[in-house]
Amino acid sequence: MTRYPDSNKWAGTSVLLGKHPSQTLERKLSAASNHGFDGVELVHSDFLSHAKPNNFTPIQSGQKVQSVCKELSIEVLGLDPLKNFEGNIGIPLSKRLDTAKEWIELAMAAGTTVIQMPSPFLPLSTRGYGIIIPELQ
């Protein structure tokens, strides 16, 4: 595969690398590396399913993932999806900010600065820019 210095990095999302319990996070990362990817977008649930059997906290899981990625010469390009954050009038902003803080800590532990936030889709979400924009700032 020809790469150019200014080209985007090739990545796949961890959920596309397997959902069966036998597809451990380490195995998914190895598959990404073996198939020429530069990195992976990690789904939040993969950190949780990696942490539990290893008796890790999610942060420890993120640190382990970063270590494995370095060994495989790939990187975590993003963490997703932080769903229903902005405009979610069903959950107080302070609680959503606590969740966002946890996600930021996890992203940093995994070695990425990107957290993907899809558009909100809950019935208790507002489309009002007067609420959404300040919440994202």
From TrEMBL:
Which Gene3D superfamilies does this chain map to?
Divalent-metal-dependent TIM barrel enzymes (3.20.20.150)
Any signal peptide, and if so, which residues? Answer: none
Ranges annotated as spanning the membrane: none
Output this protein's name.
Answer: Xylose isomerase-like TIM barrel domain-containing protein
SUPFAM superfamilies in the record, alphabetically?
Answer: Xylose isomerase-like (SSF51658)
